[in-house]
Amino acid sequence: MKRILAFVAFFQAIVVLAHSQPLTSITQLKDVKKEAAYYTDLQYLVEDIGVTVSQDFYFYPNQACTKVYWATLTNQIFDNVAEYISTSSMAIKNENKRDVVNTEMMLVFPSGYCNLENVVITSTSQLKDIQDTANYFPDVQGLIERYGLVWATTATTFTPYATITRPAFEAFFAGAFKATIPKKGTGLLAHADFIIYMAAWTRNVRDYITKKVEEAKK
């Protein structure tokens, strides 16, 4: 519990996320059309959550997600949710009640989840194919060391540029987030598919946080 509260306190002190976010509007993306099925979800993540889905202003909706893409976007979303918990809970004047609510809300993260049975990975250094000079290193590190979320290939490898299949992602998503997948997919996981999943999770979590804070303020 002390670790969780310390982490929340950290985000209360630092309101601005460290990620550079040159992309601020979905209209900046040159290959996204309003009629796309994923448009509203992408707009929500880009404009409301501040997720950087592109560095070159192309979204590549049909391109297969790699482990790096998954880690980068997921960590950004988690950081936003953690910040939302921190800033929202400040409205709770009773300090003891605020600590209790903070602890409950932090449980939205799949802390301690590893996709490999009987494998414990608590440090990025355990994955030998992740270099600390890689631009995606902070995101993989954040997921593992701040949020306890591990998606490894073996006990010592991450395979950053491996593409992700929809069945593999859905199995991981269901296990990590305790989610039900009503209709299972096939083939590779496209950027657009991933955005739809994560936008739904983010909306639900932020709604839950708002509700918990309002209840605690009464």
Give a structural overview.
Helices cover 49% and strands 2% of the residues. It has helices at residues 2-13, 39-48, 67-89, 95-106, 137-146, 166-177, 191-217; strands at 113-114, 149-150. A two-stranded parallel ribbon has the order 1-2. The radius of gyration is 17 Å and the shape is globular.
Secondary-structure blueprint of this entry?
Elements: H1 2-13, H2 39-48, H3 67-89, H4 95-106, E1 113-114, H5 137-146, E2 149-150, H6 166-177, H7 191-217
Parallel strand pairs: 1-2
Helix pairs in contact: 1-3, 2-7, 3-4, 3-5, 3-7, 4-7
Count of alpha and pi helical runs: 7
Helix-and-strand structural type: mainly alpha
Biggest pleated sheet: 2 strands, parallel
- Average pLDDT taken over every residue: 90
Low-confidence stretches: 13-21
Order of helices and strands: HHHHEHEHH
State the end-to-end distance: 24 Å
Can you tell me the overall shape? globular
Q: What is the count of β-strands?
A: 2
* Rg of Cα set: 17 Å
Helix fraction bin: 40-55%
Q: Tell me what portion of residues adopts beta-strand conformation.
A: under 5%
Order of the strands making up the biggest sheet? 1-2
